[in-house]
Amino acid sequence: MIKPSTMGKYSLFIIMFLIISCQSPNQQELSSEDELAIRATSEKWLTAAKEGNWEKVVETYTDDAILWYQNEEAIIGKEALLEYFQSQSPMSILDLQINEIEGRGDLAFVSGTVSVTPEKGVTIVVGKYLDIRKKQHDGSWLFYRDMVIELP
Question: What is the pTM assigned to this prediction?
Fold first, then answer.
């Protein structure tokens, strides 16, 4: 695992956003089916996380996915993601809200809010997330890059 600088974290997302924004006009906007598939991936992630089914959570990521939490090392690839999620304590409440979905072609970004409450009942993470999704050959949209920033 690597620990990119804070600027490096944001630079990647800014670059990816610019790539998505500046794609040629021939790239189609997201269809309603694409948006539904993106929401379905989020729901699959949320349901699996609430059940503690970390294998199913990891199925929602691409093989080369990267997950960043503020001030923590980047988690790269499915094997590292599974190891990370398996190290987490059980959650009694997990809430994930999508605020925005935008994209073209086979790339999209999704932003929203997340909160996690462990079984003890004290909220440990309330934050905002920005992730980049990649469209797969089967029409699903998997997490490609995922960044979570804790809110004070």
Answer: 0.78
